[in-house]
Amino acid sequence: MSQPDASAGPASTAADPEPTTDGTDGAAAEPLVVVDDLEKHYPVRSGVLRRRTGAVRAVDGVSFEIGRGEALGLIGESGSGKSTLAETLLHLTEPTGGTVRFDGAPVGDEAGGFDDLRRRTAMVFQDPASSLDPQLTVGESAAEPLRVRGVARRRRRERVATLFERVGLTAAHRDRYPHELSGGQKRRVGIARALALDPAFVVLDEPTAALDVSVQAELLDLLAELREAFDLSLLFVSHDVSVVRRACDRVAVMYAGELVETGATRSVLDDPAHPYTRALAAAVPTPDPRAERPRHSLSGAMPDPADPPDGCRFHTRCPEVIPPEDSGLTSAEYGAVIDLRVDLAGGEVDLDRLRARADGDDADSLGRALRAEYGLPGPDGDAGRALSAAVDDAVAGDDATAVGRIREAFGSPCVRENPERGEGDRDSACHLPTE
Ligand SMILES: Nc1ncnc2c1ncn2[C@@H]1O[C@H](COP(=O)(O)OP(=O)(O)OP(=O)(O)O)[C@@H](O)[C@H]1O
């Protein structure tokens, strides 16, 4: 593609953008986006009367900043809350708590900030197939933000031609329908549409998902060029660590509705401080087939965001969970006890299944089968006695008592307290001591 030419950019034909606060001392000193304690809880309703009985804590007290011209990557497994965070941040869905400041002004109050946010931010949605209307030409779809703002038809066409060329398409692509374009071309249309109103901040939800590696690389090059040319701030939402490594200055790591680590991309991904980040970074496939399997691999599933675990939300899967003091347990052995507790609490210890595996039908045989299934340790002293009693309770079907015993006898900071992410440039929320 040709070199960036800012004069061909969105500003030249946008719908009369008002002067921004860029350049004024106060606003310029503040990062473009400041998110403080943002929260999005979805109500859980049940019963005939559909009463509210709980909440899905999709985003649960998240704070971060994005500087002017900066690219921040948001990574985490599926279901960690990345898309909800992105949508809530742009007020496409209403937050249930917390604040967003955009370019020095609070967003969401009628006094201001809202229209500015709408006009100066844009989102490129995850799935271009569903975000482009199959009934409209892609040129019409890309022109939609301009139409909504009252820009005349002829000006819209010209503008879209400029934008299409800017993103590596041609003016002739305007009259095609989505099904006539490749996956990569559809992404480019989405990017062109996002640029239509000359935004300062663009959120890209999984911008390269389901594309060939070479098409991914071209798209990332394009985004880097556009960022530079238009001084864009970008938020890359991705579960693909290698995309974020390539495209972002900083990275924020999300787990079960919370940010667990933030910092400069290289520093976070090459030397993660949080065990979850270590697991995500280790999961990136290495080109060397002889390389050892990562030691920090993730097992188990993300907790239910309607019922997140007490303490550190990652403790139920953490390969480095801190064992109770003086228990003599390793993290892995403690992890086995936690697995049992989680399954008992969720009613997932199936005694019939255990019976099928046990070498007898008596309580001792069932207890041995349960210990074998979970790989339970046999600690000495009080912890050992408590675990044996819990196993007896479990095989007798008294899951609640078993859970209570384990909780009492196997305490650790990881199960007691949710660690706070500190302040500053490089932070992680973990109870493990840092060197
Ligand atoms: N409208 C909704 N109502 C109830 N729960 C929701 C709603 N939208 C999302 N959730 C839940 O919120 C949690 C976070 O979902 P979200 O889509 O934000 O995660 P994600 O990290 O973006 O995942 P993915 O990468 O799969 O898109 C999930 O448990 C999801 O089921």
UniProtKB/TrEMBL annotation:
<protein>
    <submittedName>
        <fullName>Oligopeptide/dipeptide ABC transporter ATP-binding protein</fullName>
    </submittedName>
</protein>
<feature type="region of interest" description="Disordered">
    <location>
        <begin position="1"/>
        <end position="30"/>
    </location>
</feature>
<keyword id="KW-0813">Transport</keyword>
<dbReference type="GO" id="GO:0005524">
    <property type="term" value="F:ATP binding"/>
</dbReference>
<dbReference type="InterPro" id="IPR027417">
    <property type="entry name" value="P-loop_NTPase"/>
</dbReference>
<feature type="region of interest" description="Disordered">
    <location>
        <begin position="411"/>
        <end position="435"/>
    </location>
</feature>
<dbReference type="InterPro" id="IPR050319">
    <property type="entry name" value="ABC_transp_ATP-bind"/>
</dbReference>
<dbReference type="InterPro" id="IPR003439">
    <property type="entry name" value="ABC_transporter-like_ATP-bd"/>
</dbReference>
<feature type="domain" description="ABC transporter">
    <location>
        <begin position="44"/>
        <end position="281"/>
    </location>
</feature>
<feature type="compositionally biased region" description="Basic and acidic residues">
    <location>
        <begin position="417"/>
        <end position="435"/>
    </location>
</feature>
<dbReference type="InterPro" id="IPR013563">
    <property type="entry name" value="Oligopep_ABC_C"/>
</dbReference>
<keyword id="KW-0547">Nucleotide-binding</keyword>
<comment type="similarity">
    <text>Belongs to the ABC transporter superfamily.</text>
</comment>
<keyword id="KW-0067">ATP-binding</keyword>
<dbReference type="InterPro" id="IPR003593">
    <property type="entry name" value="AAA+_ATPase"/>
</dbReference>
<dbReference type="Pfam" id="PF08352">
    <property type="entry name" value="oligo_HPY"/>
</dbReference>
<feature type="region of interest" description="Disordered">
    <location>
        <begin position="284"/>
        <end position="311"/>
    </location>
</feature>
<dbReference type="Pfam" id="PF00005">
    <property type="entry name" value="ABC_tran"/>
</dbReference>
<dbReference type="InterPro" id="IPR017871">
    <property type="entry name" value="ABC_transporter-like_CS"/>
</dbReference>
<dbReference type="GO" id="GO:0055085">
    <property type="term" value="P:transmembrane transport"/>
</dbReference>
